[in-house]
Design goal:
Radius of gyration of chain B: 23 Å
Shape of chain B: globular
Number of strands of chain A: 2
Helix content of chain B: over 70%
CATH superfamily of the largest domain in chain A: MetI-like
CATH superfamily of the largest domain in chain B: MetI-like
CATH topology of the largest domain in chain B: MetI-like fold
Order of helices and strands of chain B: HHHHHHHHHH
Number of domains of chain B: 2
Largest interface: A-B, 85 and 93 residues
Oligomer: heterodimer
Helix content of chain A: over 70%
Strand order of the largest sheet of chain A: 1-2
Number of helices of chain A: 11
Strand content of chain A: under 5%
CATH class of the largest domain in chain B: Mainly Alpha
Number of domains of chain A: 2
CATH class of the largest domain in chain A: Mainly Alpha
Distance between the termini of chain B: 50 Å
CATH architecture of the largest domain in chain A: Orthogonal Bundle
Radius of gyration of chain A: 25 Å
Largest sheet of chain A: 2 strands, antiparallel
């Protein structure tokens, strides 16, 4: 009697298993299809500037003047590339020491207070929408810079200050995790030898966690590099390389945000913007690979 | 300088910097709330915006944001759960799986403006959805999927191995084990992550500029037929969300009280995100206590 019963039950089980397998496989297939079509469409649009409209790649990457409607049409994207790199690197330069100090405070100096108050607040910071950062930058940081420094207040300095606050949570969270994951024996050994806390941090903790700290910084730079609206609101949007940090400038993202709606699909001016998007996307890939390389190093 | 002096100096610098960060954060939140709360009123939250006169509200934008969040989560959650389950339970440990992992990582770091451009090209133009809520929801799904996959994977990995094996040993199929044993156990983690992801969606603007559009038709809040062009529920109408509205009035606002509107709208956004954060924390703790009987 037991045999047929078992056979009867085996069938719905198998069907159930198939449903699950096929459903999850479809989901992951959709994800893969999405990323491939994203790369394909952005690349084909971005490359058509060079292959269809005949713009020289070198001219685009090194040209200083961006005049897509001018006579002659000029597509020099160097000011945008320069703007993107300078704002995101400067933002990381501001945020990295702050983030490192905060994580040392949370792990080494005051773990209880840090974990209970500082960490939730910093995580909260990560959730604040970027337009809100842009708005605060526009109504606090830009007027402050305008009063203190010569110029209009907008520019790379304002952009990097806003970005540095935005990427602080990324850098701090990763640094905190790295410091907390350090084997206790390392630090205790150092203390047992009579080293002070700062000597231990400086000579033991910092060198051992350096790859992980770098991972956080690179992720922060990647986020700053791709951030669009907050930067666009405070940078001024002048399409040339500024002579000072307090002079109006542009980034890749701000140029795309501002002009994409004003150009018709398929024109050279529009395709050139897609080339900027392609540069942005390729830089994202570079950042991902740097992070992967760093993660492999921090495992050893 | 002796080692002890150096230690004292370094410690005080670190404490001072941490204090500075707390001050900056408190100042930031305080500034947004203090400046914005004064402008909040029932009228501001419900009335339609004005283009050149003062006194405009954010009613339609607020509705659009909530509705878009709802649409996005309806599409994202089943897809993200499925993909996450595949990655954590079904995927064999080989090079293909590693490749998929890399792809998910790449997708999660693609800037949101690129996702928006992709949406403009494929959803708005190629598929012909036009500037619409539906196109916006799909773009946000692309933007949010990797996060959802990671959350699901994390949740499933937190399930004790014994519990999974006990279920399999009782003769349940793998799929049944996942849906009736593992998913309920990992619910606190997944739910907390999902709420935080929803907060991110609520404040996203760059991906929506070119997909959901920067304008909102005059909505008729008495017409709830989803196929009528002026109905708020029609998913194929353009919809400017709250975050996009803040950006727009800051860059090209003509109303004399644009700054106050931006401040009020920012306060609404931040309060919503705070609410998402606190409810995620509270719910996570509550469910954890309920499921594990740990005080």
């Amino acid at each position: 009697m037991a045999q047929p019963l078992e056979r009867q039950q085996a069938k719905p089980h198998l069907a159930e298993e198939w449903v699950g397998k096929v459903y999850t496989l479809l989901c992951i297939a959709f994800l893969i299809l999405t990323i491939f079509s994203l790369v394909y469409f952005v690349a084909s649009k971005g490359l058509s500037t060079f292959f269809v409209n005949g713009v020289n790649v070198i001219d685009l990457l090194t040209g200083l003047k961006w005049a897509p409607e001018g006579e002659p049409r000029l597509f020099g994207a160097l000011p945008f590339i320069f703007g993107s790199f300078s704002t995101s690197l400067l933002a990381a330069a501001i945020a990295a020491p702050l983030g490192f100090c905060a994580s040392v405070f949370m792990v080494e100096i005051a773990p209880k207070f840090g974990r209970q108050y500082l960490q939730p607040v910093i995580e909260l910071l990560a959730g604040i929408p970027s337009v809100v950062y842009g708005f605060v930058g526009l109504s606090v940081i830009v007027p402050f810079f305008r009063d203190v420094f010569p110029g209009q207040g907008v520019g790379i300095a304002a952009g990097s200050v806003v970005l540095s606050i935005m990427i602080l949570p990324t850098i701090t969270t990763i640094a905190t995790d790295a410091l907390a994951a350090l084997p206790k024996g390392l630090k205790e050994g150092s203390y047992a030898l009579g080293a002070t806390r700062w000597q231990t941090i400086y000579r033991i903790v910092l060198p051992t966690t350096l790859p992980a700290l770098m991972t956080g910084i690179v992720l922060g730079i990647a986020r700053a590099f791709g951030e669009a609206l907050a930067v666009q609101m405070v940078i001024g949007n002048a399409p040339h390389i500024p002579r000072s940090l307090f002079e109006s400038a542009s980034t890749l993202t701000s140029a795309i945000t501002l002009s994409m709606g004003n150009t018709a699909m398929g024109t050279v001016a529009n395709n050139a913007l897609w080339s900027l998007a392609l540069i942005l996307m390729l830089m994202t890939f570079v950042f991902v690979f740097i992070v992967r390389w760093l993660e492999r190093r921090s495992k050893i | 300088m002796s080692a002890k002096t150096a230690n004292k100096i370094a410690t005080s610098v670190i404490v001072a910097v941490s204090g500075l960060i707390v001050l900056v954060l408190a100042g930031l939140l305080g500034y947004i709330l203090v400046r914005g709360l004064g402008h909040l009123s029932f009228d501001f939250l419900t009335s339609a915006p004005e283009t050149i006169r003062r006194g405009g509200g954010i009613g339609p934008q607020l509705f659009n944001s909530v509705f878009l969040l709802f649409l996005t989560m309806i599409i994202t959650i089943p897809l993200g759960l499925g993909a996450g389950i595949y990655m954590s339970e079904y995927a064999p440990a080989n090079k293909v799986t590693n490749g998929i992992r890399l792809i998910v990582e790449v997708l999660s770091s693609v800037p949101s403006i690129i996702v928006g451009l992709f949406g403009l090209l494929v959803l708005v133009n190629l598929f012909g959805f036009g500037f619409s809520l539906f196109a916006g929801a799909l773009a946000l799904t692309v933007f949010n999927l990797p996060l959802m996959v990671r959350i699901t994977e994390q949740g499933l990995r937190s399930v004790p191995r014994e519990q999974k094996e006990a279920s399999l040993a009782l003769g349940l199929s793998k799929w049944k084990t996942i849906t009736s044993v593992m998913l309920p156990i990992s619910m606190p983690v997944i739910l907390t992550g999902t709420i935080l992801a929803a907060g991110r969606v609520f404040g996203e603007a760059a991906a929506l500029l070119f997909t959901a559009g920067m304008s909102s038709p005059r909505l008729d809040f008495t017409d709830w037929n989803p196929f009528s062009p002026f109905s708020p529920l029609n998913p194929f109408r353009p919809a400017e969300t709250l975050a996009v509205h803040i950006w727009k009035i800051n860059s090209e606002g003509l109303a004399p009280d644009a700054k106050e509107i931006a401040a009020g709208a920012s306060a609404v956004l931040v309060i919503t995100v705070l609410a998402f954060n606190f409810s995620a924390r509270w719910l996570g703790r509550y469910l954890y206590r309920k499921f594990t009987a740990i005080k």
